[in-house]
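Usage example:
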Amino acid sequence: MTGGIAARLEELGLSLPDVAAPVAAYVPAVWHGDLVWTSGQLPIVDGELVATGLVADPALVPAAGSAAAGPAGSGARAGSGVAPELVSPDRAAELARICALNALAAVRSVIGDLDRLERVVKLVGFVASHPTFTGQPRVVDGASRLLGEVLGDAGRHARSAVGVAVLPLNSPVEIELVAAVR
Amino acid sequence: MTGGIAARLEELGLSLPDVAAPVAAYVPAVWHGDLVWTSGQLPIVDGELVATGLVADPALVPAAGSAAAGPAGSGARAGSGVAPELVSPDRAAELARICALNALAAVRSVIGDLDRLERVVKLVGFVASHPTFTGQPRVVDGASRLLGEVLGDAGRHARSAVGVAVLPLNSPVEIELVAAVR
Amino acid sequence: MTGGIAARLEELGLSLPDVAAPVAAYVPAVWHGDLVWTSGQLPIVDGELVATGLVADPALVPAAGSAAAGPAGSGARAGSGVAPELVSPDRAAELARICALNALAAVRSVIGDLDRLERVVKLVGFVASHPTFTGQPRVVDGASRLLGEVLGDAGRHARSAVGVAVLPLNSPVEIELVAAVR
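Running the assembly step on the lines above writes:
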């Protein structure tokens, strides 16, 4: 029998992905005591990273791929010979939402039933950021809001949002969390 | 009745700020079991971020705002058209101290009385860094020393210091911590 | 009497370093409850950082120090007047392995006997990354694999790998972990 959180996900039109079998000396999540620690989650859907690049202020994003993107590219990705892809904060917030869903899936992979999830304790959001982009909280809000929608008060967490130079596979966002379970 | 840590803060001429009410799906700190996890803290005083920019070696900082800052700016903030503000390590250590005070305030907001704080377990310091700046430990020492001054042995923690590209609101420093409480 | 993990380390030809006495208001590791939290570990051997620089795609690394490194240097380290040193992913994975050994040494420094280590719960790997380098997982695998070799199933952890602008002392890699002990 599925519990309240599974029903809530369905009501929101959301479904959690299956979690890929571990291919390395690390795993999607570890349950120890009453805490579950997830690995960093990327915005992967059906096994594919759905976007790449650096998050930038909206004014810079339309210029991506055009000549106007040259100066940004030459500074942020010097030596690559390729202008970096730029991602808007709104799009990045959607990606953070996907990361949060994947984090819930990682938690479920070790506890079985998400109704055992008592509280999301901490979330860290890493945002691959263009050097002038300082709106990381707005991006990570995509993850925080998803947790609130699905989990209600149990989704209210402590959080850090930081801007980093580059993330694995050129992902724009990576989210990790620690959850308390009963 | 206020306890020993409140008295110690007063003796040091320090006061903890009130913690702003949460405006999003996250909170300043979460208490679960005997651990309190804080959100990432910025050097905010009376609701205002007190400095912005990247931390850089002292030799680079006096040039900020002058023509000599151009090359640094054009590389570190290419595409912005504005040279980045640079912050000295000493100033950044003061900012880290403010972050640590704010982190204690966040802990207090959930445990009520700081005398319940048994030990700071872990601290992570993110330093928004000019690409040539490698003195992150010296910056984060500002937070570590504050905890030692206020808490004595209970303030001795494990710590990571990393240099990142950019932080929320263009803050030079962000500090998060995990504390054990009784 | 030394236990199974000490024997396993010897079998692998590995030895854990002594941990330097704390010189600041932080310590190599903190043990609270059944968790040990380490400080961020650098690839230090006999007190010396064994490599510096940014991790970059192999195609870029041979050019380090030659004229071809100029453009990369001028973008990634603008204002420094010095081309950054570049480190290959394979070399960086070796460095991550050293960091993981140092993390085990930090854990041992507080629990005494590594056979008390029940499980590595979480590992975070920070990789100082050239702006075009997106292979952070491959680097951090160096740490994850070492833990698997030494600890077996107890070494299988949740993990985050992120790329950062610069690390303390210009280290290419920094690793922190949380371990459960009994």
